[in-house]
Amino acid sequence: DSGVTQTPKHLITATGQRVTLRCSPRSGDLSVYWYQQSLDQGLQFLIHYYNGEERAKGNILERFSAQQFPDLHSELNLSSLELGDSALYFCASSPPYDSGNTIYFGEGSWLTVV
Amino acid sequence: AQSVTQLGSHVSVSEGALVLLRCNYSSSVPPYLFWYVQYPNQGLQLLLKYTTGATLVKGINGFEAEFKKSETSFHLTKPSAHMSDAAEYFCAVSLPSGVYNKLIFGAGTRLAVHP
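The joint structure predicted for all components is written out below.
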């Protein structure tokens, strides 16, 4: 158990809908990352938040947005869902002063768009 | 820009045989390198990492990897495969501490271990 908690574990929704994925980082971690894992794209970095501020953006679609709240939990919002958005979405966190850049991953949220 | 190439999307070995999973990286500055393992229906677990210092890094479950700057490689090895090693393995690179430390992953190598 990495200490990173993601909910829901599984989600099935229809095209055009909107979903929210939630992540609680490890205690004390200020950074939260979101990754998407799909068969065709592999593991893709989406976005990084540090202590509530967006720090880096990767291959995140405009239909997707994220935020990190004062209590450091994060939400990834996916809207106007398409079949191709079906994937495993990982949240990860890292401690603020880890010189080794270790990132700890949650178990992921499986999203199926039908 | 950084990138990671994992040679071989599927590797199959016999139980007790040597495991060798290949990873080559590209980075404009000396990177930090990682191997993660993903068991079926689970998240990513850190196996080992290289930051600085000794180039041979030992990780969990008997795995080790050697950083070879001249070859831009960070291959993962295990002397004797066990059935429980069957999983997908990901090599990843990040910039050193002090910059935004997002991980860039390779495409992964699925390891199968047969009796």
